[in-house]
Amino acid sequence: MTQSNSIHSTASHESDWISQEVSSNADSTASTPIPPAPAAEVHSDLSQEKQRILANTYTFVKQELSGETSGHDWWHIHRVVQMARRLALAEGADDYICTMAALLHDIADEKLNPSKEVGMQRVNDWLDRQHVQTEDREQITYIIANMSYNGGNNPPLPTIEGKVVQDADRLDAIGAIAIARTFVYAGHVGDMMYDPDLPVREQMSAEEYRNGRSTAINHFHEKLLKLKNRINTPSARQIAEERHQYMEQYVQRFYEEWEGR
Protein backbone atom coordinates (compact mmCIF):
# COMPACT_ATOMS: atom_id res chain seq x y z
CA MET A 1 0.00 0.00 0.00
CA THR A 2 1.38 3.39 -0.92
CA GLN A 3 1.59 6.15 1.65
CA SER A 4 -0.91 8.25 -0.29
CA ASN A 5 -3.48 5.48 0.03
CA SER A 6 -2.74 4.74 3.68
CA ILE A 7 -4.57 7.74 5.04
CA HIS A 8 -7.94 5.95 5.21
CA SER A 9 -6.45 3.00 7.13
CA THR A 10 -4.62 5.03 9.76
CA ALA A 11 -7.42 4.72 12.30
CA SER A 12 -7.33 0.93 12.07
CA HIS A 13 -4.14 0.95 14.12
CA GLU A 14 -6.05 2.38 17.09
CA SER A 15 -7.30 0.05 19.80
CA ASP A 16 -10.67 -1.66 19.33
CA TRP A 17 -12.20 -0.33 22.51
CA ILE A 18 -11.68 3.29 21.45
CA SER A 19 -13.31 2.70 18.07
CA GLN A 20 -16.24 0.93 19.73
CA GLU A 21 -16.68 3.74 22.23
CA VAL A 22 -16.73 6.40 19.52
CA SER A 23 -19.21 4.36 17.47
CA SER A 24 -21.51 3.75 20.42
CA ASN A 25 -21.67 7.45 21.20
CA ALA A 26 -22.13 8.70 17.63
CA ASP A 27 -25.90 8.26 17.50
CA SER A 28 -26.53 9.63 20.98
CA THR A 29 -24.57 12.84 20.36
CA ALA A 30 -25.43 13.59 16.75
CA SER A 31 -28.58 15.59 17.54
CA THR A 32 -27.44 17.26 20.79
CA PRO A 33 -26.65 20.96 20.22
CA ILE A 34 -23.41 22.21 21.75
CA PRO A 35 -23.68 25.57 23.54
CA PRO A 36 -21.71 28.48 22.05
CA ALA A 37 -18.49 29.56 23.71
CA PRO A 38 -18.97 32.04 26.57
CA ALA A 39 -17.83 35.63 26.10
CA ALA A 40 -14.03 35.76 26.12
CA GLU A 41 -12.46 36.47 29.51
CA VAL A 42 -15.84 37.00 31.22
CA HIS A 43 -16.35 34.97 34.42
CA SER A 44 -18.91 37.06 36.31
CA ASP A 45 -20.47 34.03 38.02
CA LEU A 46 -17.28 33.30 40.01
CA SER A 47 -16.14 34.73 43.35
CA GLN A 48 -14.15 37.96 43.26
CA GLU A 49 -11.03 36.07 44.32
CA LYS A 50 -11.30 33.59 41.45
CA GLN A 51 -12.05 36.42 39.03
CA ARG A 52 -8.87 38.16 40.23
CA ILE A 53 -6.79 35.00 39.75
CA LEU A 54 -8.19 34.45 36.27
CA ALA A 55 -7.67 38.08 35.20
CA ASN A 56 -4.05 37.96 36.37
CA THR A 57 -3.53 34.60 34.64
CA TYR A 58 -4.92 35.86 31.32
CA THR A 59 -2.46 38.78 31.50
CA PHE A 60 0.47 36.56 32.53
CA VAL A 61 -0.03 34.02 29.75
CA LYS A 62 -0.52 36.73 27.10
CA GLN A 63 2.78 38.28 28.14
CA GLU A 64 4.60 34.94 28.15
CA LEU A 65 3.34 33.53 24.85
CA SER A 66 2.54 36.54 22.62
CA GLY A 67 4.83 36.36 19.59
CA GLU A 68 5.71 32.70 20.17
CA THR A 69 6.36 31.20 16.71
CA SER A 70 5.91 27.43 17.10
CA GLY A 71 2.09 27.42 16.92
CA HIS A 72 1.82 27.40 20.72
CA ASP A 73 1.27 31.14 20.99
CA TRP A 74 -1.32 33.20 22.86
CA TRP A 75 -3.94 32.74 20.15
CA HIS A 76 -3.65 28.96 20.46
CA ILE A 77 -4.30 29.43 24.18
CA HIS A 78 -7.25 31.72 23.43
CA ARG A 79 -8.83 29.10 21.18
CA VAL A 80 -8.26 26.28 23.68
CA VAL A 81 -9.70 28.35 26.53
CA GLN A 82 -12.81 29.23 24.55
CA MET A 83 -13.32 25.63 23.46
CA ALA A 84 -12.70 24.33 26.99
CA ARG A 85 -15.32 26.70 28.37
CA ARG A 86 -17.77 25.67 25.66
CA LEU A 87 -17.23 21.97 26.38
CA ALA A 88 -17.34 22.56 30.15
CA LEU A 89 -20.78 24.12 29.79
CA ALA A 90 -22.00 21.19 27.71
CA GLU A 91 -20.44 18.49 29.91
CA GLY A 92 -21.08 19.99 33.36
CA ALA A 93 -17.41 20.58 34.20
CA ASP A 94 -16.01 23.28 36.48
CA ASP A 95 -15.44 26.41 34.37
CA TYR A 96 -12.77 27.86 36.68
CA ILE A 97 -10.63 24.70 36.77
CA CYS A 98 -10.97 24.17 33.02
CA THR A 99 -10.09 27.77 32.24
CA MET A 100 -7.04 27.87 34.52
CA ALA A 101 -5.67 24.58 33.16
CA ALA A 102 -6.31 25.65 29.56
CA LEU A 103 -4.63 29.01 30.14
CA LEU A 104 -1.50 27.55 31.72
CA HIS A 105 -1.06 24.29 29.81
CA ASP A 106 1.60 25.55 27.39
CA ILE A 107 3.48 27.48 30.05
CA ALA A 108 4.55 23.98 31.13
CA ASP A 109 5.02 22.50 27.65
CA GLU A 110 8.44 20.90 27.37
CA LYS A 111 8.69 22.12 23.77
CA LEU A 112 8.85 25.65 25.21
CA ASN A 113 11.04 24.84 28.23
CA PRO A 114 14.36 23.11 28.90
CA SER A 115 12.36 20.20 30.41
CA LYS A 116 8.86 19.26 31.54
CA GLU A 117 9.99 19.70 35.15
CA VAL A 118 11.10 23.27 34.50
CA GLY A 119 7.78 24.01 32.82
CA MET A 120 5.74 22.59 35.68
CA GLN A 121 7.80 24.62 38.14
CA ARG A 122 6.85 27.78 36.22
CA VAL A 123 3.17 26.84 36.60
CA ASN A 124 3.57 26.08 40.30
CA ASP A 125 5.43 29.34 40.91
CA TRP A 126 2.60 31.26 39.28
CA LEU A 127 -0.08 29.46 41.29
CA ASP A 128 1.94 30.19 44.45
CA ARG A 129 2.03 33.89 43.67
CA GLN A 130 -1.73 33.92 43.09
CA HIS A 131 -2.47 32.00 46.32
CA VAL A 132 -4.62 29.44 44.51
CA GLN A 133 -6.44 27.13 46.92
CA THR A 134 -4.77 23.76 47.46
CA GLU A 135 -7.59 21.63 46.05
CA ASP A 136 -7.90 23.80 42.93
CA ARG A 137 -4.14 23.84 42.49
CA GLU A 138 -3.93 20.04 42.65
CA GLN A 139 -6.59 19.66 39.96
CA ILE A 140 -5.03 22.28 37.68
CA THR A 141 -1.49 20.91 37.89
CA TYR A 142 -2.61 17.29 37.47
CA ILE A 143 -4.43 18.15 34.25
CA ILE A 144 -1.49 20.11 32.86
CA ALA A 145 1.04 17.42 33.78
CA ASN A 146 -0.94 14.60 32.13
CA MET A 147 -2.90 16.04 29.20
CA SER A 148 -0.29 15.96 26.43
CA TYR A 149 -0.36 13.44 23.59
CA ASN A 150 3.14 12.18 24.46
CA GLY A 151 3.34 9.89 21.46
CA GLY A 152 -0.01 8.35 22.40
CA ASN A 153 1.44 6.91 25.60
CA ASN A 154 -0.45 8.84 28.30
CA PRO A 155 -3.43 7.13 29.99
CA PRO A 156 -6.90 8.76 29.88
CA LEU A 157 -7.51 11.57 32.36
CA PRO A 158 -9.88 10.60 35.19
CA THR A 159 -11.84 13.82 35.79
CA ILE A 160 -14.37 15.55 33.56
CA GLU A 161 -12.31 18.75 33.81
CA GLY A 162 -9.23 16.90 32.57
CA LYS A 163 -11.17 15.31 29.73
CA VAL A 164 -12.61 18.69 28.69
CA VAL A 165 -9.27 20.52 28.64
CA GLN A 166 -7.54 17.67 26.82
CA ASP A 167 -10.33 17.62 24.24
CA ALA A 168 -10.15 21.39 23.76
CA ASP A 169 -6.40 21.22 23.14
CA ARG A 170 -6.77 18.26 20.78
CA LEU A 171 -9.52 19.98 18.80
CA ASP A 172 -7.04 22.74 17.97
CA ALA A 173 -4.95 19.96 16.39
CA ILE A 174 -7.82 18.79 14.15
CA GLY A 175 -9.09 20.82 11.19
CA ALA A 176 -8.12 23.90 9.22
CA ILE A 177 -6.10 25.68 11.90
CA ALA A 178 -4.41 22.38 12.73
CA ILE A 179 -3.14 22.16 9.16
CA ALA A 180 -1.65 25.64 9.41
CA ARG A 181 -0.11 24.93 12.82
CA THR A 182 1.49 21.73 11.52
CA PHE A 183 3.47 23.54 8.86
CA VAL A 184 4.30 26.40 11.23
CA TYR A 185 5.75 23.94 13.74
CA ALA A 186 7.64 21.96 11.09
CA GLY A 187 9.31 25.14 9.92
CA HIS A 188 10.02 26.15 13.51
CA VAL A 189 11.95 22.95 14.26
CA GLY A 190 13.51 22.57 10.80
CA ASP A 191 11.47 19.59 9.55
CA MET A 192 10.78 19.20 5.84
CA MET A 193 7.31 19.66 4.42
CA TYR A 194 7.37 16.10 3.06
CA ASP A 195 9.88 13.43 2.12
CA PRO A 196 8.47 10.26 0.51
CA ASP A 197 11.60 8.37 1.57
CA LEU A 198 11.05 9.08 5.27
CA PRO A 199 8.52 6.52 6.56
CA VAL A 200 5.72 7.27 8.96
CA ARG A 201 6.54 6.12 12.49
CA GLU A 202 3.77 3.74 13.56
CA GLN A 203 4.88 3.24 17.17
CA MET A 204 6.97 5.71 19.18
CA SER A 205 8.25 6.22 22.67
CA ALA A 206 7.77 9.69 24.15
CA GLU A 207 11.44 10.41 23.43
CA GLU A 208 11.14 9.28 19.80
CA TYR A 209 7.99 11.36 19.37
CA ARG A 210 9.72 14.50 20.64
CA ASN A 211 13.14 14.11 19.03
CA GLY A 212 12.93 11.66 16.11
CA ARG A 213 12.98 12.73 12.46
CA SER A 214 9.65 13.46 10.82
CA THR A 215 7.97 15.76 8.28
CA ALA A 216 4.90 17.97 8.37
CA ILE A 217 2.89 15.46 6.35
CA ASN A 218 4.10 12.49 8.40
CA HIS A 219 2.86 14.31 11.51
CA PHE A 220 -0.71 13.98 10.25
CA HIS A 221 -0.35 10.19 10.30
CA GLU A 222 1.74 10.01 13.46
CA LYS A 223 -0.64 12.13 15.54
CA LEU A 224 -3.30 14.37 14.04
CA LEU A 225 -5.36 11.78 12.18
CA LYS A 226 -5.37 9.60 15.31
CA LEU A 227 -6.85 12.24 17.57
CA LYS A 228 -10.50 11.82 16.56
CA ASN A 229 -10.55 8.38 18.15
CA ARG A 230 -8.92 9.73 21.32
CA ILE A 231 -11.50 12.41 22.07
CA ASN A 232 -13.10 11.98 25.50
CA THR A 233 -16.45 13.77 25.56
CA PRO A 234 -19.58 13.48 23.38
CA SER A 235 -19.64 17.23 22.72
CA ALA A 236 -16.07 17.26 21.47
CA ARG A 237 -16.67 14.20 19.29
CA GLN A 238 -19.29 16.11 17.31
CA ILE A 239 -16.79 18.84 16.52
CA ALA A 240 -13.91 16.44 15.88
CA GLU A 241 -15.80 14.41 13.27
CA GLU A 242 -16.25 17.24 10.77
CA ARG A 243 -12.79 18.69 11.39
CA HIS A 244 -11.20 15.28 10.91
CA GLN A 245 -12.91 14.82 7.55
CA TYR A 246 -11.68 18.22 6.39
CA MET A 247 -8.12 17.38 7.41
CA GLU A 248 -8.28 13.94 5.82
CA GLN A 249 -9.40 15.46 2.53
CA TYR A 250 -6.55 17.95 2.69
CA VAL A 251 -3.90 15.25 3.11
CA GLN A 252 -5.34 13.21 0.25
CA ARG A 253 -5.32 16.33 -1.95
CA PHE A 254 -1.71 17.01 -0.94
CA TYR A 255 -0.63 13.56 -2.18
CA GLU A 256 -2.51 14.05 -5.45
CA GLU A 257 -0.83 17.38 -6.10
CA TRP A 258 2.54 15.94 -5.08
CA GLU A 259 2.19 13.44 -7.93
CA GLY A 260 1.21 16.17 -10.38
CA ARG A 261 -2.45 15.23 -10.52
TrEMBL record:
Residues 1-10, 17-27 have a biased composition (Polar residues). It comes from the Bacteria. InterPro entries: HD/PDEase_dom (IPR003607), HD_domain (IPR006674). Signal peptide: none annotated. CDD domains: HDc. Pfam families: HD. Residues 1-48 are annotated as: Disordered. Gene3D superfamilies: 1.20.58.1910, HD-domain/PDEase-like. Transmembrane segments: none annotated. Residues 73-174 form the HD domain. This is HD domain-containing protein. It comes from Paenibacillus hunanensis.
